[in-house]
Amino acid sequence: QDGDFKFPLESVKKLKELMDGHRPLRARLAVPTASHSLCEEKALPVEFQAVCKREDAPMIFQRLSLAAEDDLCELCANAACAGCL
């Protein structure tokens, strides 16, 4: 979840995979500047089309991709989790 947007965890994991492929390894922590190319990606889950229409899409995508980090359990990646970290 990010603000009013709610997405399935599997879609967020796919988003992270796409984002990892769209930036250099050294820039992993930076906000992606190529959100338009990400939004034009055919493999982008349809749930993210509404995000693509927003100016703050890169920030939303970045926050969502953090929820799909490999070191978080699926419970901690969801809003229902309390106190995992």
From TrEMBL:
Chief location category: secreted
Subcellular location: Secreted
Coiled coil feature spans: none
Gene Ontology MF term list: guanylate cyclase activator activity
The keyword Signal appears for this protein: yes
SUPFAM superfamilies recorded: Proguanylin
Cystine bridges: C39-C52, C73-C81, C76-C84
Pfam families: Guanylin
Gene Ontology cellular-component terms listed: extracellular region
InterPro entries reported for this sequence: Guanylin, Guanylin_sf
Key words, A-Z: Disulfide bond, Secreted, Signal
Family label: Belongs to the guanylin family.
Function: Endogenous activator of intestinal guanylate cyclase. It stimulates this enzyme through the same receptor binding region as the heat-stable enterotoxins. May be a potent physiological regulator of intestinal fluid and electrolyte transport. May be an autocrine/paracrine regulator of intestinal salt and water transport.
Name assigned to this protein: Guanylate cyclase activator 2B
Protein's organism: Smithornis capensis
